[in-house]
Amino acid sequence: MHETRQRERVAGETAPDRKKSAAEWYERYVGGTPEIERAKFAELAKDLMRVQLKIKKRTGAAGVMRTFHAKAILAVEDATLEFARDLPEDLRVGFARPGARYPVIVRLSNASGTRQPDFAPDLRGAALRIQTGPEESHDLLMTNYPVSHARDAREFVAFARVMAGADTGLRKGIALFGKLPLSVGWSAAARMRRNVRAGTGRKVASLALETYWSRGAILWGARPVRYRLRPAAGTRTALFPSGKDPDYLGREIAGRLAAADIVFELCVQRYVDARRTPIENGAADWDDQDAPVIRVATLTIPRQTLDSAAARSLARRVDDLAFDPWNTTDAFRPLGNLNRARKAAYEASSAHRKGRRFITTPPRRNVIAGRILNAGFDALNRFVPWHRLPTWAGLLNLEAVRQVLRRRNLIDTEIRPSLPMAHPVPPDVTEEQRTRRSYDGTYNDLSAPEMGAIGAPFGRNLPPVYRPELFGEPNPVTVSRELLHRDAFVPARSLNILAAAWIQFQVHDWVQHRRYPTGTRSVEVSLPPGMTWRNTPDGPPEHVMRFADDHGVHADGSRKPPTLFANAASHWWDGSEIYGGDEAVARSIRVPDGGAELRLEDGLLPPSPDGGVPLTGFRDNWWLGLSIMHTLFAREHNTVCAALRSEYPRMSEDAIYHTARLVVSALIAKIHTVEWTPAILATEVIDIGLTANWSGPPHTWLSRLGLWLVDEHALTGIPETLPDHHTAPYSLTEDFVTVYRMHPLIPDDYELADLRSGASLRTLGFNDLQGRRTEAAMREIGFENALYSFGIAHPGAITLHNYPRALQAFERDGEILDLSVVDLVRTRRRGVPRYNDFRAGLHKPRVRSFAELSDDPDTVARLQDVYRTVDDVDTMVGLFAENPPRGFGFSDTAFRVFILMASRRLQSDRFLTVDFRPEIYTPLGLDWIARSGMKSVIQRHCPDLGGLMPRDAGAFAPWHQVPGAGPD
């Protein structure tokens, strides 16, 4: 971040719409570009949040306070700012008009981050919020010394870090003369100490007598200026400062205001040139002789009494505000390194103070032990994989792997303006936004409302690989026919078909790529010689396979396909597949007249007006397995509503609905975490690890000692921790989508049986149970029989040569699709690396030959026939071919993405962490989640099935068949 490494950029060149004054002025971005600088400032903002925690710990404060200016001396709302009638022509910009008069909120304060006595050496600050209209205001922030102790953001944060909580002379000395030089260098530390001494060494008699400087520059229309606030001529003097009264400044200004108005003059200095009036150096003064001071307005704080309940209430309201120099318009945007750093810092620290953003600081022992264990396991895993280690060592090994993945495999893909932009004062968070899941996923993170919402882009665990020349190589149809096509059904004998239905039920909640309408923009795949394909039910045979293309984010019109795509579902675990992704859908599936329950008819989902897929939150790719899951959890929602209404009779129907949605969504997350996942990854290590994610690790001294050393925050279940996005804003990723391609779980044929007699009712193919045919089959067979039939039958194994035949000629939205080809092509076009690069990016050794990929000679031979080299193997093919650990239903490489993202989906969600509490869910709601699981949900709604579920396994393991039933 040193100036010698910075590249000058003329503001007019980086933003053509921003005018440049005749005296050319410069902004220089750290690292050379706004994007690089923004990333660095984001890390500095986290440092300031850590400073807040340090101050809280050292002062014993009940909550997080401001990083600076913690103690308000004066906080009023009724001040006025009136612009001079002789305002110079070049300063008449925007709201700055001759004679214009505006209301102003004023906060005067001590600068320290701790509430120390007024007589302690300190700087003093002034914050103004000029309210120029209903949608426009401007925050001006100043300090009573003309220059900053720091020339740039790096020095500023370093100073804040070493001074945090330094509330005694000894601690201040250690910080200033010991820690500071190590952080910024000896010469910079000496200059910073001089500035601090000069700024804090003077006794202050009254804040009404102080002059306050902006230190940094702002844009004032076409030119930069610095501004200052100085006492108006004739301001009454004050008594000598008290050395005993810790609140003398507050008493003095209260007494002053009780007798008369307090008046200041707002002044500006015009930019001259980069040498005399630098923009990027906050430690450099703008000399009055070089840049004369011009009075532009008068600030008047009217006479009033501060010692009343109303005044104290108003002061608390003002004190709760978050002042930010970027709360303005583009015509008055802040300039310079320090001001640009303030954008990230103020947003982060104010959100932290208000409980809307969080940071978790690992103990030093975790950092040290983690590095040692990472190195040790990295060496050990070259010879012994984690799944062959003793249980306690395997758990620590996985924890070490997850920490590496968190540091190196979360890539930020959020789209932001390239240049920092001014903005209006952010609106307050409403009570509903704070306590309810929104329909579209907004406001889960209250400090970043759009994070994870519908339309937010998919993230990345690995950098995208753009290889358009390989989109068709090898031919994906050939790959499908040779390596994926199901010759004979291979069952997964440890599971039942409910496990297959469950994961599709979940994926519909998590991810949905938006597609172009059929026939408007398509991907074409050439067919092998001699092969034809009908792309529509009544279409002619063609030599290409065609399907709808994905919508890319911000496609630029070039031929290069985008590698960034938006999620048409929310990224959060919010039950949107049941409840819908917008308010209109959500309300349409509730009972009439605003009731809390979801619509059901005779216990089943209501039919749609067109007689097709029934009414529910997500209706694509509909089949009997999804109908079972949607029906079951719609019933569960309604049962929770009834319990809430009985327990809390004064709760409104809307509150009952939203609380029930919270409860059901969290219960689904719990079931997936502690039941479905251990069922498909059936090992003791995974069972312990996933249970620990929800409720904490087992109470064995060895396991707890290991986590105490490596990751103290894992000693409790994730619901008892704070939200943590780790190294990137939360989103699900394209790589996550890839590893959850589990279509082989779907059988092609289904034996539907009667749960009472065991007799076969019907044998149907997948196509007889999907789309428009689904609900007729459900009503004919009955809900309980459908559940029973899925509970006793096996899904397919996730392996090569086991892709459902029904999905290789699947009709959807007027298209006939081979979904195996679609899966291959979309993975390539979305930039997911091929299998070997995928492995390497997840820190696994590359495979050197096809023989390393599979133990089956026939599979190896087919791989060699289809691919030129092992590096060309498609990601999905490699994941299916890989020999999984014993008990695993999918590969260890896919599992790497899973262990990263499985805990992240819980850890990032405030409704599953900091707001997983009775005040949000109600005590009944939390108790419901704690006592419930998939078995209890099924038994609650289908009591006759209780005795058929396995005694010593979960609901996703094969059930007992009714005696006398036919063959499986």
Provide a descriptive summary of the structure in words.
Residues 1-23 have low confidence and may be disordered. This protein starts with 6 loop residues before the first strand and ends in a 27-residue tail after the last helix. Strand 13 and strand 14 form a beta hairpin. The radius of gyration is 32 Å and the shape is elongated. The chain is built from 31 helices and 19 strands.
Distance between the termini: 68 Å
CATH topology of the domain at 3-353: Catalase HpII,  Chain A, domain 1
Average the pLDDT over all residues and give the rounded result: 90
In percent, how helical is the residue content?
25-40%
How many strands in all?
Answer: 19
Estimate the strand proportion: 5-15%
State the low-pLDDT regions, or none. Answer: 1-23
Kindly provide the name of the CATH class of the domain at 3-353.
Mainly Beta
The CATH level-2 architecture of the domain at 3-353 is identified as Beta Barrel
Principal-axis shape equals elongated
Number of helices: 31
Pairing-aware structural class of the strands and helices?
A: alpha+beta
**Main β-sheet description:** 9 strands, antiparallel
Radius of gyration: 32 Å
Pfam families: An_peroxidase, Catalase
Cofactor: Ca(2+)
GO biological process, one term: response to oxidative stress
Domain Catalase core: 67-161
